[in-house]
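Need the bound structure for 2-acetamido-2-deoxy-beta-D-glucopyranose, inputs here:
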Amino acid sequence: MAMLGRFALGFFLSCYLMISVSSLASPDEFLQCLSDKIPGELVYRQSSSSFADVLVSSIRFPNFFTNTTVRPLCIVTPTAACHVQAAVRCGRRQGVRLRVRSGGHDYEGLSYRSVRAEVFGVVDLARLRSITVDEHESTAWVDSGATVGELYYAIAKNNSQLAFPAGECPTLGVGGHFSGGGIGMLMRKYGLSVDNVLDAKLVNAEGELLDRAAMGEEHFWAIRGGGGGSFGIVVSWKIRLVTVPPTVTVFSIAKTVDQGAVDVVTRWQAVGPSLPDELTMRVKVQGQEAVFLAVYLGTCTSLVATMGRDFPELHMTSADCRPMTYLESTALSFTTLAKTGTPEEVLLNRSSSLGFSVKGKSDYVRQPISRDAWEDIFDWFKKNGSGLIMLEPHGGFIGRVSTAATPYPHRRGVLYVIQYLVFWPAAINGGTAQTWLDKFYDFMGRHVTTNPREAYVNFRDLDIGKNTVVDDVSTFESGKVWGERYFMGNYRRLARVKAAVDPTDYFRNEQSTPPLLHGRHN
Ligand SMILES: Cc1cc2nc3c(=O)[nH]c(=O)nc-3n(C[C@H](O)[C@H](O)[C@H](O)COP(=O)(O)OP(=O)(O)OC[C@H]3O[C@@H](n4cnc5c(N)ncnc54)[C@H](O)[C@@H]3O)c2cc1C
Ligand SMILES: *[C@@H]1O[C@H](CO)[C@@H](O)[C@H](O)[C@H]1NC(C)=O
Ligand SMILES: *[C@@H]1O[C@H](CO)[C@@H](O)[C@H](O)[C@H]1NC(C)=O
Ligand SMILES: *[C@@H]1O[C@H](CO)[C@@H](O)[C@H](O)[C@H]1NC(C)=O
Ligand SMILES: *[C@@H]1O[C@H](CO)[C@@H](O)[C@H](O)[C@H]1NC(C)=O
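Answer from helper R.:
Posting the output first, comments after.
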């Protein structure tokens, strides 16, 4: 209803205030402009019978698809970069903002819904997903609308000893995932996704298509981890591929509290970040159990020797080893490492079920948490079985990259990142689960980094702050509240880039980087 109101108001005012229309949305003119410039079958209006199907196609969480969710005016599904350019030009001219969606996995749904009532269009890149591998150069070009599963599959089918470091869930979109950093099981050996991006093609706020040379090094710096939705629409990425052995070794070992989970997790904090770079071992804590999930770029024999030397407390033996190709390891369930199908079925399946709503949060740990505190943490999980935390070790390659090299600042000295998740079925209210998470997160404040309490932009959390908009531009000060937690000292540099490339704040959402404008009292 609020959206309809705004619509009518925008239309009404634009008839009278012709001079200042730039900040007022003209939805009808926008739709007309799209239909002049883009083939009709690529544009879905709210009145289209397929609108809801296209909208929901990559929505992962039902809590962002309700009857009160602020939905887009239309969805554009480009099949070429020129369609993205046309959408941006129409949007600029008619004062209609665009949100861009690649895989739709944003934890707050910001790629397809607005928190405030506003008129906006969605550019959904799902049809722009070609992948070209250059085996000889060990590089690839991947379009933003590809999923990481499709990327892993295309690389390995070209050459099974090449791979790319990125996240664990095959349906993640390349566009949003790379925009925020990209952590995964190869990160201790090869870094984040953004540590391996060589070039990109982006549509800026003027509708121009730019590569690295044309956008310049500061703009190119910002898109490698500065968060999606702020610096333009990245259409395609050139990436450096990395090498993996013909066979890797995977294990999953569970320890209950009765079996000593508290001691083993306490010990893992020192071990996980300092193991050989070839070994990434994450931990899932849920209920009264910790599960140690590892991918090792090497053989079972050498893994058993490494574990016996560095982490005897886990009692890992050769019976725990599961040898497989690296590609097969990427098709395992990311929370259990259980097999859920063949790589073909799992990695190329873009559909996601709308089964569970979610709320996520994150923290970074630089000083090991005490054993006593871990006892308390396991007690929190007695109170709610539907919550979990994932601990992802840093160290290795990540810690050797300087804080200023990319916007991702959580580098040297970080032991691990904590991802908090609670789930609830679509049909029920999530209030209880979220209250539990809020209280648990408060409790954790004394055990994690402070000043700032660091957080990971790809685990987006609107509780830590939303932009305030003044004179139609998000303010630097309001963005600082959440921005310094995601980017630390890099926030200011991101805001300077934003002022240079998008001073009128065309590309924005509730947590986009605001422009740092001179002479403005933010
Ligand atoms: C099940 C699950 C597992 C996850 N696992 C991991 C993991 O292992 N490692 C990790 O690092 N993260 C992980 N994440 C977080 C994930 O990286 C982020 O949610 C990421 O932003 C998703 O990208 P997307 O394209 O799917 O999302 P979208 O919702 O499409 O986009 C996310 C944000 O980026 C913007 N954006 C999208 N495409 C573009 C583009 N082409 N150009 C500019 N901006 C764009 C959007 O507007 C939005 O603001 C996980 C998330 C989920 C839901
Ligand atoms: C939205 O759905 C809820 C139930 O999920 C219902 O109670 C409410 O009346 C609906 N609101 C509108 C505006 O349709
Ligand atoms: C695989 O690599 C070769 C050689 O670099 C290249 O010609 C081919 O197009 C690639 N295939 C794919 C699917 O990218
Ligand atoms: C694809 O994924 C969906 C959602 O998880 C699932 O329901 C479906 O069975 C999968 N299809 C195949 C072929 O695996
Ligand atoms: C735990 O969370 C679920 C929702 O996921 C909720 O139904 C349940 O009541 C919660 N239990 C407690 C004890 O908070």
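Comments: Confidence is low (pLDDT under 50) at residues 1-22. The two ends are 31 Å apart (CA to CA).
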